[in-house]
Design goal:
Chain lengths: 258, 239
């Protein structure tokens, strides 16, 4: 991992641990300043952020014409899962029928993961915690309680892990199809080991496609980048009616509300 | 605001310790180094019957990070081990214990890596499996690796490796006696656990049985992911 010319590789040193230690420090700094999921915020926070940036200001205005407000998520590499989870669970608080469908999907999902070879004992632990939160949503707990759960690291990270496992499970189950979209020589299993299962690994299209497919939850993503005048909406899967909307800025997902 | 990540680790470790103590599994025993500290465990691994390690009693120290299970524990043998994948100081080098950061070895071999569903049991079973099936792809102990290959390629005629292992196994007997432990030497005893759940333990037993030393070059069983997939001798990718 040493960079050419700048570091002398010391075989007695554990570079992985050093990298991890450094990552932990960065994570701590982020953790001190930002909730996992914020309250609903007015778009003025984005206008302030981009006050000096005419291209982005235009895009924020176009967002404002389509959406009411947003919630930001912590930029820790898990933002897609946290944004998806919170936005969808918040939706379920008001939609009993959709809740019933999802509860069934979620409850059956454990067996698929066990059949793929994930260790049963630990899968059960993550699954039980996931279902505990799902059932709180089913009992129509106050929104504040859901918000608190998502900002409690113990719960919040367990939910992220389980959503990551669902993605990994789906990619592995449909490996024949998804292997066409994995870069390099990696197998789907390696890809899941390296890019899906570890906490903090960012999400790409393939993760979104898998999560929307395995949960049956359609998502609209508004892409906000340098090109064009407005944000570009993309629905997963294509042509579906989205249940939730997320804002994408390079490397990060937040939640949008209509 | 958010609780510290440590509380998640404490919860996960308590759950694992309780489960392993209530339903001991084949091949190892665990206890806390110090009752007040869940983050350091003493482990005793029994050498699998039918291998060079039969009747061996190997002690190791497991240390868990504060963000367990998001990061892997580390394992260090306290018993002296001459093994291609164990450093001279006892540190165990196996892909499942690799932190989930990009590492230069990635992509070289298919291998099981750490993820939050791995646990004490899957780690220890991987290590037991590693004892008899070293990975010589990128060894931690090069001399041991060279010697192991000589032994294996000569189909056991070159006894140097075997003799060292047997001597080390022999040396562990005193320790076992001191601890009052009877090390199981038959498959039946080795696998006995109180009421194993079929779905959970069926895979564990299968792996070392058909791998008696001497004919372990081609291991074609395609068991579950707990074990590294074996392709020649390079199944356990090294760090």
């Amino acid at each position: 991992m040493a960079e050419e010319g700048t570091l002398h590789y010391d075989p007695d040193k554990n570079y992985d641990e050093e990298t991890l230690a450094q990552q932990r420090i960065i994570e701590k700094q982020i953790a001190g300043t930002q909730d996992f999921v914020t309250e609903r915020l007015d778009f003025s926070v984005l206008e302030q952020e981009y006050a000096e940036d005419p291209v982005y200001i235009k895009k924020v205005r176009s967002l404002k014409s389509k959406y009411l407000c947003l919630r930001k998520t912590r930029g820790d590499g898990n933002c897609f899962y946290r944004a998806f989870g919170f936005a969808y669970f918040e939706k379920l608080l008001e939609d009993q029928e959709e809740f019933n469908r999802f509860r069934d999907v979620a409850s059956k999902s454990k067996d698929v993961l066990v059949s793929l070879g994930f260790p049963q004992f630990t899968i059960e632990d993550f699954h039980d915690t996931f279902m505990e939160v799902v059932d709180k949503v089913g009992s129509q707990c106050p929104l504040e309680e859901l918000h608190k759960i998502f900002n409690d690291q113990g719960y919040s990270d367990y939910l992220v892990v389980y959503l990551r496992l669902l993605v990994s499970g789906h990619l592995q189950k449909e490996a024949d199809f998804f292997s066409n979209f994995v870069e390099g020589d990696r197998t789907i299993k390696e890809f899941c080991n390296q890019e899906v299962e570890p906490m903090g690994k960012e999400s790409d299209h393939i993760h979104i496609i898998a999560l929307t497919a395995v949960t049956g939850v359609s998502v609209r993503v508004e892409y906000m980048d340098r090109g064009g005048e407005t944000t570009n909406a993309h629905d997963f899967p294509d042509g579906s009616t989205p249940k939730i909307a997320l804002l994408y800025r390079p490397g990060h997902y937040d939640i949008l509300y209509t | 605001m958010a609780q510290s990540p440590t509380s998640g680790a404490v919860r996960a470790l308590q759950l694992e310790l309780k489960k392993i103590q209530e339903e001991p599994v084949e091949g190892f025993r665990v206890h806390l180094s110090n009752d007040d500290n869940l983050f350091e465990w003493e482990v005793a691994i029994f050498g699998p019957p039918g291998t060079l390690y039969e009747a061996g009693y190997f002690k190791a120290h497991m240390k868990f990070p504060s963000d367990y299970p998001y990061s892997p524990p580390s394992v260090k043998f306290l018993t002296k081990m001459w093994h291609p994948n164990v450093y001279e100081n006892g540190d165990v080098c196996i892909s499942i214990l690799h932190p989930p950061v990009d590492d230069p070895h990635s992509g070289e071999l298919p291998c099981e890596r750490w993820n939050p569903t791995q646990n004490v049991r899957t780690v220890l079973l991987s290590i037991i499996s590693l004892l008899n099936e070293p990975n010589t792809f990128s060894p931690a102990n090069v001399d041991a690796s060279v010697m192991y290959r000589k032994w294996r390629e000569s189909k056991g005629r070159d006894k140097e490796y075997e003799n060292i292992i047997r001597k080390q196994v022999q040396a562990t007997k005193q320790e076992a006696e001191k601890d009052g432990v009877v090390v199981p030497t038959t498959l039946e005893d080795y696998c006995v656990s109180t009421n194993p759940k079929p779905s959970d333990s069926s895979m564990d037993a299968a792996d070392f049985y058909d791998d008696d030393y001497g004919d372990d070059i081609d291991d074609d069983d395609d068991d579950d992911n707990v074990y590294e997939e074996d392709d020649d001798d390079s199944g356990n990718e090294m760090s």
